[in-house]
Amino acid sequence: MSEGFTGQRSRGKDSTMTTLTLTGDPAETDLLAQAVFVTADADRGAALLLRTTVTLRRPAAEVVSARVLATAHGVYELSIDGRPVSEDLLSPGWTAYGQRLTYQGWDVTALIRDESFALEARLGNGWYRGDLGFGGVKACYGERIGLLAALEVRYADGSLQVVATSPAWSATTGDVVANNLYQGQRIDARRRSAAGPVLAVREAPFDRSRLAPQVAEPIRRHEEIAPQRVWTSPSGRTLIDFGQNLVGWVRAHLEGPAGTEITLRHAEVLEHGELGTRPLRNAAATDTFVLSGQGLEQFEPTFTFHGFRYVEVTGWPGPLDPAALTAVVVHNDMRATSTFACSDPLVERLVANSVWGQKGNFLAVPTDCPQRDERMGWTGDIAAYAATASFQFDTADFLHSWLLDVASETAVEGHVPVMVPDVMRYARLDGPPPFPEIGAQAIWSDAAVWVPQALWRAYGDLDRLAVHYPLMVAHLESVEPLLSPTGLWDQGMQLADWLDPDAPPDRPWAAKAHPGVVATASLHRSAAFAAQAARLLGRDPARWDALAARLRSAFREHYVTRSDETLRVTSDCATVYALAICFGLLDEDEQRSAADRLAELVVARDHRVTTGFAGTPFVTWALSQHGHLDVAYRLLLERGCPSWLYPVTMGATTIWERWDSMLPDGTINPGDMTSFNHYALGAVADWIYQVVGGIRPAEPGYRRVLVEPAPGPGLTWARTTYDARVGRVTTSWRVEDGLFRLDVTVPDGVPADVVLPDGTRHEVVGGTHTFTSAPARPR
Ligand code: BGC
Q1: Is the peptide bond before 757 cis (omega within 30 degrees of 0)?
Q2: Under a CB-based contact definition with an 8 Å cutoff, are residues 203 and 212 in contact?
Q3: Which phi and psi angles does 229 have, rounded to 5°?
């Protein structure tokens, strides 16, 4: 480890590369202050190469350490004498660039071998200047891409040398002749040997007040997947199946005559035996590689990404060799924290689909989908999914980084926008927006509270909670004035139970659940957690307690009716009962009646799913916690459409946006919003981990664990692991010969309450323990 700064070893192939842990301290800002933000004019499609030759003041042998800090408008890759400074990709990622632009840092000591070397950056359009948003928005943040970078070399005698971007750098273009996140990338290898045009480098306006250290893990390559099948489609096209709907790109190695042009088109599904590209809308998702004819050549389009399982290849010289193509999976480098296995392979696949959905959509920001002309940080999607996500991966830094942007966009907009970064605000600057302005929305804007709530539960980090608290306050303060005199949030448009399967395909907001019920209940959940957070942080919770109480009593007065035997919530559908139960709007004795009605509704619809974004994460919880575990299991295990397992029976390898993104006859849903990689409806995985698997935090951050696995009809065993910050928790249960047998492992020194299906409770501290019980609580 070199001196002066600390870093995390990259997990990449070259173990000498180190991504620095940044702090934003003066040593970093002072170094960046020596750099000038530079740009050069090139054709908009082409990647820009910015370069300088570094001449060391002292012999290379006297270099003790060297680090480089950098950021860009656009996305960039830095190299020293052609060797990448790290395996990080698409840096600086995507933040609310107008308010927060992150810089990255790497220890490059091991790359400095000579007294003179080239320091070079390759810059692509990325989110800054590429297409962004489904309204055809281009160059959302600005017309010019550019770089800010500073290399600091420390010598044995303690002296420092700094080489930073300035107009003295040189610029040209290279082999990337077109690059765009949605459209794809064109690489012309003939340009690798030829010198590109000499472009003038100049200083460009740059607001340094936005600079902030990168908080999230970098974006990296992960799995590499070989083609599973290559065949010719009915129309004569060459298709490849990688066997998994994934996010990233295809790397190619091949040899062929100069000028040979290979085109790869990507899609998530096939329709009528051909590539199903209609759901991509205006994203061409097409990469083109032009050969130079100079022997074996490699192409890897790192300035784009695609959501795909299938690729159509044209122009291949000679018979296609599948070994020449590799799908590369790309996402932020979060720690994977869960495993799950059980007796039903379809449920295992559903859970795996949720994990793949997270991989594909935790790329720079938590996105709705990774493939079409959208890929936005839709806040409602992560509001629904944050708890699940935080079981599957350590999301603390990734989501914290995004929440910083939620806060800054909220400060600009006056409410929590439905997408962060808020691309629509920029779209509006250019003319009529692609859709009407949407103000604060239940669930979507509630992400400002629900995401910190999920993080608090998973990681128990009070300092982070304190950082997020003002955002919670901003959200509640922006919505409070929108309440009706009744105290309900029942005015204005709501996305609410988005994608209720009973809504028409072209009207996804037209759900059964009354929008006021959904909005008032959701806001109650937010106010209640804000009050809890205030208590934890030693602040005055009175205002949020009062708001929660007002919402609760309005909800009960206007939306709940009771007779002796029954309880009804307005609009009488699964979602409204799930929310009323899970968000604390009912008294103890009412919850069972509400759950009974919920169970009736689920049974009446033959255990098909009837909920959208709002109800889906909560419906199984509401059932299992109030005496209807068996109904929750049947709902989970149903295979007919719509259900969680229906997509699995159709071969899904990720969670779909719609319950029927693919119709039973194998055609794609006719709606123009049909993704096959949308995690929100996969939020049931949280219930699978925490109720079927039975691993829950008894205290935030799992400092005390609750182990309460709940076996139900249809599963005979389940094995779950969760790598909490305190260590690994494992549960493994089996029902055999009428007995439930459970093995539990808890990290050393960590207390756990083990609750068995027969209702008995046992306390253990660390270690592995075995229990047996009757498989169900006596009624
Ligand atoms: C997105 C959703 C999002 C919704 C809200 C869609 O286009 O893909 O996931 O939350 O719009 O309007």
Answers
A1: no
A2: no
A3: -160, 140
Q: 672 C-alpha vs ligand 1 centroid, how far in Å?
A: 12
Listed in sequence order, the DSSP H helices in 52-202 are: 126-129
Written as one string, the DSSP assignment of 741-771 is: EEEEEEEEEEEEEEE-TTS-EEEEEEEEEEE
Euclidean distance between CA atoms 757 and 558, whole angstroms: 37
The residue whose C-alpha atom lies closest to atom 4 belonging to ligand 1 is 378
Cα 64 from chain centroid (whole Å) = 38
Residue 642: asked if its preceding bond is cis (omega within 30°), the reply is yes
Question: Would you give the DSSP letter of residue 513?
Answer: S
Q: Mean pLDDT for each consecutive 10-residue tract of the chain (779 residues)?
A: 37 58 94 98 90 97 97 98 96 97 97 96 94 76 95 98 98 96 97 90 96 97 98 97 98 97 98 95 96 97 98 96 97 98 98 98 97 95 98 98 98 96 78 73 98 98 98 98 98 94 91 98 98 98 98 98 91 98 96 97 98 97 97 98 97 96 94 93 98 98 98 97 97 96 98 97 98 78
Tokens encoding 73: 């408008």
The token duo for 388 is 């699940």
Interval between CA 417 and ligand 1 midpoint (Å): 13
- CA separation for the pair 688, 635 (Å, rounded): 12
Q: How many residues does the chain have?
A: 779
| 3-state SS, residue 521 | helix
Query: Please, what is the end-to-end C-alpha distance for the chain in angstroms?
Result: 62
- Residue 739's CB: how many other CB atoms inside 10 A? 11
* Helices 588-604 + 574-582 axis angle, to 10: 150
User: Which residues belong to the active site?
Assistant: 374, 657
Q: Extract the runs of DSSP E, i.e. beta strands, from 137-226.
A: 146-155, 160-164, 170-173, 176-180, 184-188, 201-203, 211-213, 219-225
Spell 288-317 as b/e; 16+ CB within 10 A means b: bbbbbeeeebebbbbbbbbbbbbbbbeebe
- Between CA 55 and CA 50 the distance in angstroms is 17
Token output for 217: 């893990």
Q: What are the DSSP E strand ranges found in 29-95?
A: 38-40, 48-55, 63-73, 75-80, 83-84
Cα–Cα dist 106/9, whole Å: 10
Q: Is 13 exposed, middle or buried (0-12, 13-18, 19+ CB in 10 A)?
A: exposed
Using CB distances shorter than 6 Å, the residues near ligand 1 are: 368-369, 374, 378, 380-381, 495, 498, 673, 678
